[in-house]
Write the structure tokens for this entry.
Amino acid sequence: MGSVSFWKKAGLCCIPLIATSAILWAQMPSHVPIPKDNPQTREKIELGKQLFFDPRLSVTGTVSCNSCHNVMSNGTDNRPVSLGAHGKPGDRNAPTVFNAAFRSVQFWDGRAASLEDQAKGPPMNPVEMAMPSEQMIEERIGSIPGYRREFEKVFGGSQPVTFDNIAKAIASFERTLITPGSPYDRYMAGDKAALSPEAQRGLKLFESTGCTACHSGPMFSGPTQPMGTGFYMKFPLFSDNPYVKQYNLAEDLGRYQVTHQEQDQHMFVVPSLRNVEVTAPYFHNGSVKTLDEAVRVMARTQLNKTLDEKDVQDMVAFLDSLTGEFPVITLPRLPETPNTTILER
Amino acid sequence: MGSVSFWKKAGLCCIPLIATSAILWAQMPSHVPIPKDNPQTREKIELGKQLFFDPRLSVTGTVSCNSCHNVMSNGTDNRPVSLGAHGKPGDRNAPTVFNAAFRSVQFWDGRAASLEDQAKGPPMNPVEMAMPSEQMIEERIGSIPGYRREFEKVFGGSQPVTFDNIAKAIASFERTLITPGSPYDRYMAGDKAALSPEAQRGLKLFESTGCTACHSGPMFSGPTQPMGTGFYMKFPLFSDNPYVKQYNLAEDLGRYQVTHQEQDQHMFVVPSLRNVEVTAPYFHNGSVKTLDEAVRVMARTQLNKTLDEKDVQDMVAFLDSLTGEFPVITLPRLPETPNTTILER
């Protein structure tokens, strides 16, 4: 199938017109977008790091942002779906927090327009961190003397420990979680030895097969969108193959669950392929365990193609070249609650 | 009650004879004991740090050593009892990992003679990390290429990824988790301004009340014992008070559960008071939320004394002076499983 019939099927015929080679292939940007109303400061990033690692943002005091988006690993937990504060599984695979700052929308269904919006989701999600109310979050964090002092310093005002400010600080820290320096980026910068011959074949195959129809641009997540505007694709696009049943790919209605508009059924944000080597398992439901199988599934469900095994291996070699360098992070000290605890049985 | 009747009641009449002032009060030692068969090396400590933070040591991939012994906080989780991999609560309060290297035995009932022995407990505990067998732990860790390389480098041999070596590496890392430099240590080193007048009154009161009968020595955990030999005390010693029922202090049979010998009923290792300010809640069952209440309970259940509120506050001021300086730790990078995951649903 050529790219025209793909786009026709996908109902997005205009996209290929702008998907020129310059947009298809690009290095990782050197700077993340920063919203005007949440400028980065050293103190805010440090506060955000504390909050990101603080399990007291969950009702049980056992689940932090880092539990499911583990920055010691790949910004995810490598589980199909995460387990929340009460040990219950979530619905969708935890996306990596690394390079999330470059995403124009957050969550698989794009329901958060910014990292700030996203950060407010898990604490209030009854399966994830399961806090009963925004007020309880503010009260709990505000009851910790060290946090109160830091929020005052970072945000000022008489009541700085707000859910909004908690989210702003976490988002600021997350904007430091980027992974430049991948072999692919070095290759694009002129170091032709950075990619193995297999990876170079995989790169060409990635374009000729049609993967770049969606996975283009510096993040391999489609044409760069204005912040808050997602780039979505139907998944699975072709359902007449055994993978759909085998991996339960058609159960989740995707963005429809947010908009309740028919055209959003099975629409998902196109995920970045940066670090895809180390973020197994794959897809919105985490149902596919290995990257080679994910490549086979994608070729068949999105492009109606069946790749031979050599092509799959070359494609994986190319995708492995998108793994960047992870930042060195010093552990935060979490502020204390002297002589008492705020966590009940 | 004077100290003689206390020791008579406790059945340990010989102890006061050696509990001279020199033993009662001491600074934190500058070096931790290192077992001959597990010398510290930089690479082993680094490997141990990775393992300490790696949730893949639990069956679900969600609970690491750090989950319950959080070194970003106080080496504990500040919960009454911890929640394990399947969300189930444990039986006893998680002791802090900070300064555990100085403890002559590990666990509340002293059932592990070393940090190495202790490290093998939680992974196999069905409520904690819930791994089904030592073999599965070895296979899982051994299936991660980065770990395999590091174990080869650190331990050598053809099959270096053993449960024993996992425990040795973790113990080596834990021996770096010490907190010197407390106000008390500075005071003992001659800086008389390091303790407030309240804390100095508390210090005197701590001895005159009889607390030093057990909480003596550099770690405030009793006379220094040879490694593997615990210093135990009956708790509660005096049961004719409302605290015992209120905080359910007499339910747990303590060391008896390990030895099944009658004299070990309700015997527990005397815990260190280092960092007690920040390790709430208190006691083997984590039933007491605040340090002031813990002081009241201890005076009554162990020394049959009722302190007035001023004394309680002074004692707390002294105990707060035992909080040391926590080490700055760089986050480890956890070795990857490229293009796949080892965690199933």
Chain B touches chain A through 51 residues (CB under 8 Å). Residues 158 and 199 of chain B are 56 Å apart (CA to CA). Chain B has 16 helices and two strands.
